[in-house]
Design a protein that fits this description.
3 domains; globular; 23% strand; Dipeptide-binding Protein, domain 3; seven-stranded mixed β-sheet; single chain; D-Maltodextrin-Binding Protein, domain 2; 19 strands; 16 helices; alpha+beta; Dipeptide-binding Protein, domain 1
Length: 531
């Protein structure tokens, strides 16, 4: 069972049974079907966050429990993942040449430590993201390569000046990671790993390592009547089986299921008391080969490995069919290569026996005809270890013997940043389905999350060209060229894309699942009906 103190258990049970706290309701009880105030939402996260500094983060165990504490300049509409709407910016305009974005900010907003929110906070936050100071890792800086400067026009107006048009700018600003910190704290601290101070609907209350992260309602939130909840409690449960049991028992009100079998079991046990929101998500299983280590510096070796991977088998074996074969951009999304084009890429062809033979020839040409040994970094836990086991089997088909080294996610994250690995099987999540965000963060030569060291001048050239192309049809054609180039360079080998199953008890209202794990995480519109 999930580790709860008696007080925590009673709190979670009360939230399940009552749905709200009458003392927190600012008026008569609303009619059924209308939002109610009060209650504590209990949510699962898979592990401790490696840092509490959102700007430096790149995994969901950081953003999910911390996003409710912050606001963004603009955001994706919680009820429409394709629409960008105001948040701390009330409105904005773009110059005719597409090189100046002017944002008009909301007044009367306070940070949790009491400081009024102003334009200087936007400037300080985005300068930290785009031009991080020494000692700060900024995974998303690559998506803002077009930004030349940020200017404070007045207390409530800020201007982004670009060196070229950039049609993806608003979408990238709206990523859930780009939270606004107060300038005064950024000026006095190297990082924000211990200070969770935003303007968001919830305030940081308590973090008990290995147990939980607790947030409480911000009574001075700038959106009238929000949030509805008294608080949110994220329980840290590394074992998904334990977490699933906690969800079934009602101790967790919101959870992410792993596969169709769990969906079927939840529906069998709980029936219509639960709601399942399903769809392809911006997450994939990937295999990284460190090109700063031999023989992974040889593109023939990397291509041989990609050709050895049975991608339809990865969907079946790893995710019980709840996934899709795809390239770098989300299958079915507006930017993805069509299936017939993807199948022309080595490793994606329909005739796997031929590809295996071609892969062995490539290894022979690279001087490793008898195969070789390699170390494979794997992340501990049921969510990721199977990916490494699957890849160990795939490599063996072409004579490569992989010794697994299983570590905790925080250790793996640190070793990736230091490039201290040979190969690694893990997951990769993206914040938005946008080529600037995905390639700028992961695939260009200086991308912050290009942990492989593979540098393709062709990828960089195409990335820059598509990024400033305003004609939608021309840009899409360039993005297809870019994806082909990156796939052929094998900067990362993509095994498959995942489907996502967000499940919650029916009394949890007001939440719509987004394809991205990193948008719509503030929970300000979520409320609890009577159970």
């Amino acid at each position: 069972m999930i580790r709860l103190t008696r007080r925590e258990f009673l709190l979670a049970t009360a939230a399940l049974a009552a749905g709200c706290s009458p003392a927190a309701t600012p008026g008569p009880a609303p009619a059924e079907g209308t939002p109610r105030w009060g209650g504590v939402l209990t949510v699962w996260i898979r592990g401790d966050p490696p840092t509490l500094d959102v700007h430096q983060g790149s995994i969901d165990s950081i953003l999910h429990p911390l996003a409710p504490c912050f606001d963004l300049l603009v955001q994706f509409d919680p009820q429409d993942p394709d629409r960008i709407m105001p948040d701390l910016a009330e409105s904005w305009e773009v110059s005719p040449d597409g090189k100046v974005y002017t944002f008009h900010l909301k007044g009367g907003v306070k940070f949790h430590h009491g400081k009024p929110f102003k334009a200087e906070d936007v400037k300080a936050s985005f300068e930290r993201i785009i031009w991080p100071p020494k000692g700060i890792v900024s995974p998303r800086r690559g998506a803002f390569g077009a930004v030349e400067g940020i200017e404070v026009v007045d207390e409530y107006t800020v201007r982004f000046v670009l060196n070229r048009p950039n049609p993806s700018l608003l979408a990238n600003i709206a990523q859930g990671w780009n939270v606004i910190y107060p300038r005064d704290l950024l000026e006095t601290k190297v990082d924000m790993s211990k200070d969770v101070v935003g303007t968001g609907p919830f305030k940081f209350k308590e973090y008990i390592r290995g147990v939980s992260i607790e947030l409480e309602r911000n009574p001075e939130y700038h959106v009238p009547g929000r949030p509805y909840l008294d608080g949110v409690k994220f329980f840290i449960v590394p074992d998904p089986n334990t977490a699933f049991s906690a969800f079934i028992s009602g101790q967790l009100l919101m959870y992410r299921l792993r596969n169709p079998a769990e969906v079927a079991e939840a529906r069998r046990v709980l029936g219509d008391r639960v709601v399942v929101q399903e769809g392809v998500t911006l997450a994939k299983a990937v295999f990284r080969m460190n090109a700063t280590h031999r023989p992974w510096d040889d593109p023939r070796v990397r291509q041989a490995v990609s050709m050895a991977i049975d991608r339809p088998a990865a969907v079946r074996v790893l995710y019980q069919g709840a996934g899709q074969v795809g390239g770098i951009l989300m299958p079915g999304g507006r930017w993805a290569l069509p299936k017939e084009e993807l199948e022309k890429i080595p490793g994606y062809g329909p005739y796997k026996a031929r590809e295996l033979e071609a892969a062995r020839r490539l290894l022979w040409e690279a001087g490793v005809p008898e195969g070789f040994k390699t170390r494979m970094l794997a992340v501990k836990g049921a969510a990721f270890e199977p990916i490494a086991v699957f890849m160990k089997d795939q490599l063996a088909k072409v004579g490569i013997q992989a010794d697994l080294e299983v570590v905790e996610s925080a250790v793996a994250y640190d070793r990736l940043n230091r490039r201290d690995y040979d190969t690694m099987a893990w997951g990769l999540s993206m914040a938005i389905d946008d080529p600037d965000a995905i390639f700028g963060e992961n695939y260009t030569c200086d991308a912050p999350r290009n942990y492989t060291g593979v540098c393709s001048p062709e990828v960089d050239r195409l990335y820059l060209e598509q990024s400033q192309t305003l004609d939608p049809a021309r840009r899409k054609a360039l993005v297809h060229e870019l994806e082909r180039a990156a796939l052929n360079a094998n900067i990362k080998a993509v095994l498959c894309w995942l489907n996502d199953f967000l499940v919650h008890w029916r009394q949890v209202r007001g939440y719509r699942r987004h394809p991205s794990l990193y948008t719509n995480q503030k929970l300000r519109d979520v409320w609890l009906a009577e159970g």
